[in-house]
Amino acid sequence: MNRAAVLAGLGTWLPENVVTNDELARRLDTSDEWIRTRTGIRQRHVIGPGQSTGDLAVEAGRRALKSAGTDQADMVMVATSTPDRPCPATAPDVASRLGLTGVPAFDIAAVCTGFVYALGMAAAVIGSGTAGSVLVIGADTFSTILDPEDRTTRAVFGDGAGAVLLRPGDPGEPGALGGLDLGSDGSRSELIEVPAGGSRQKASGRSAEETGAYFTMQGRAVFSEAVRRMATSVETAADRLDWAPGDIDRVVLHQANARILAAVADRMGLPADRFVSNIGRVGNTVAASIPLALADGVIEGALRPGQRVVLGGFGGGLTWGAMGLRWPDISPV
Ligand code: UT7
Residue 286 falls within a domain, yes or no? Predict the structure, then answer.
């Protein structure tokens, strides 16, 4: 019998510190009105001194395990583009801090598609019998790589973490992941990048501004790619599950911009209210975005057991991907 990866637990964590649009407007040439109308974002959470991506990942991971009623996992994947250090990966440290020393643990770097990539890899690992349960965590702290003077990226990004525990199960049961679609286009990598800090361009010895160690994004070009790629990927995943687009009850996309969600809905010919959104409260939290939206979707009653749900992401690389499931009866912690 085929083994599927089944969603068994969901946990999230946001840093305490909230930065509102008005607070940003006091320091930068922007306004609450511009940010709300161009992005739908009202506020974002930002880590404080001494906090890191790994700290958020540990808290979200702990909650996902609690939500699943266990303290065990056979593998830990952390999707992140803001690891605690360039080397080693953040996941082994996170695993140990969760009491899981000894299990395989590694990072996955696919920027805003990182969580969907990690879900896909976890489903393959579980499906092949390589591991039993897999803890998949999406965590990012883009506040640590933004140019403090860049009003556009400062308005958009927030920090956070979300996690799911996947267990082996039957492909037909609620929570079973399926329909995986993943893709990339490295010829357009310059649209979303941190130019320095890797082997091509070192970042040491001078300021982040001089060395190109800040995050950069060509917003307009990214916007149209995001709409096209996410709409196609969601349709592909649905098709692989034998669902017509109209059969999808809820779409949970990477929360990059409320206008992107509306444009994807329009392109797919689906009502906008089928698209779960929490971007107003958290902004674009990169790899944490989809699990944070899932948890808020459950809490607000938009996601209910039995619904056909498709998750979709798009981000730097460029990368994109989607997967579907019938929503299970789980309570986020
Ligand atoms: O998460 C991974 C994938 N990322 C995405 O999908 C992001 C996709 N892109 C976007 O969401 C949007 O492109 C942004 C929100 C990043 C930018 O919104 P936009 O409507 O595309 O604005 P723009 O960059 O085209 O800029 C329009 C104007 C410019 O002024 P001029 O040149 O027309 O005078 C900008 O300088 O808005 C200005 N602007 C701002 N004004 C006030 C840009 N940022 C701000 C700001 N406050 N924060």
Answer: yes
Ligand 1 binding pocket (C-beta < 6 A) is 30, 34-35, 38-39, 112, 151-152, 155-156, 219-220, 222-223, 226, 256-257, 260, 284, 314-315
Helix, strand, coil percentages (3-state) for the chain, rounded to 5, are 40, 25, 40
CB-based contacts of 236: which residues, under 8 Å, 6+ apart?
A: 179, 181, 322
pLDDT tens across 109-146, in order?
999 999 999 999 999 999 999 999 999 999 999 999 99
Domain-located, residue 333: no
CATH number at residue 234: 3.40.47.10
Report the separation in Å between the CA atom of 156 and the middle of ligand 1, taken as the mean of its atom positions: 9
Instruction: Identify whether the C-beta of residue 278 lies closer than 8 Å to the C-beta of residue 248.
Output: no
Tell me the two tokens of residue 79.
């999707």
* Catalytic residue positions, numbered: 112, 254, 284
Work out the number of other CB atoms within 10 angstroms of the CB of residue 33. Answer: 10
Q: Domain range holding 203?
A: 178-326
**Ligand 1 mean position to 32 CA, how many Å?**
14
Poorest-pLDDT segment among 1-15, 29-43, 95-109: 1-15
Q: Is the pLDDT of residue 1 over 70?
A: no
Summarised one tens digit per residue, pLDDT across range 89-112 is 999 999 999 999 999 999 999 999
Does residue 153 share a domain with residue 24? Answer: yes
